[in-house]
TrEMBL record:
Record's protein name: Class II aldolase/adducin family protein
Lineage of origin: Bacteria, Bacillati, Bacillota, Bacilli, Bacillales
SMART domains according to UniProt: Aldolase_II
Lipoprotein recorded as keyword: no
Gene Ontology cellular-component annotations: cytosol
Amino acid sequence: MKNFTVAGKAESPFLSWLTEGMINEFELAGYRYHDEPVDSIHLVFNLIDPKNPRHYRRNSQSTFVVSVVENDEESENVFKSAYPYLVRSLANHLIYISHQAEDTTLYFLTPEQGFYSKSYHREEDTALFFRHIFERLEPLASSQLVIDNNFYEDLFDGLAEGNEVTEKMALGGKKLDDMNLLPTPFPIEEYLSSRDMRHLKKLYGIGGLSYGNLSSRENNDHFWMSASGIDKSNMKTVGRDMLYITGYDSEKNAMNISIPPETTPKRASVDAIEHWMIYKEHPDVGAIVHIHAWMDGVEPTPVNYPCGTIQLAETVAGLVRESADPSRAVIGLKNHGLTITGTDLDDIFHRIEGRIIPRVPMS
């Protein structure tokens, strides 16, 4: 049975009402509520103080933490004001509550910069309101991350220094920058202590937040992919900037990566499991680009699953399979961006040039 708890203290009547309503809704759906955290907890609502946000210290990657913060201060840019709370509290998701004169708005934020809202009107049907929150959060909370890496120092001469494929990837990264498709990496180190950074890296292998990635097929079974947390406009080094993905270890729930001997590698992009599924099923796919942007006529996935989850990978792979031409598909990721397949990187850039909409629609 899936279980959950609430950490922190509700400091206002609204937050107490909201917390009680979420507890009731998740219990109705079969979740077991614990007054105190247990070792194997699936979901935590972490009520944080805006003046001193504290994180819930997980014991497992499988614990999904939703931080909840209430703030009455006016903000010209709600996303800019709210996103640091997501990072500071080391959360998988954030509910940012903003009160106005007549209404209250709940803003939902994801680490991938998904940002959408739900307003609460005092005369609104309370049951429908909490059902909406549940339907937003439960698919995410029950999803399974694939973010661990198995590194093998078996990449020797011939690939250890890169090849024509990695050269084209480096040019592709510069192309993304030229098209203004590489948002500035979020300065996570400015918001977390060195202790919290160590905890985050140990739990999730995260050393920084950057957005967008690209990959290219090397052969039937292996592909190259940009690493996590790097400047993708300046990719040079194999094992640091570009990683050689050789497979997925289902027993360890980790991506297999070959690196040159005596290399301290960067982590693989969390989207590696998604790219692996697509390459494995579609031999005509030669490259994949993921961007935080949009194009007209693209339908989004029904759920904004977190990056790096089996559920998102399976959803995107399924949409590629159903597309008219899997080797040249454009898949919309709800409140997130696009995954684009092509016969090679040149094919992808040729098809998207002049068609990109910088702002991702949020709903």
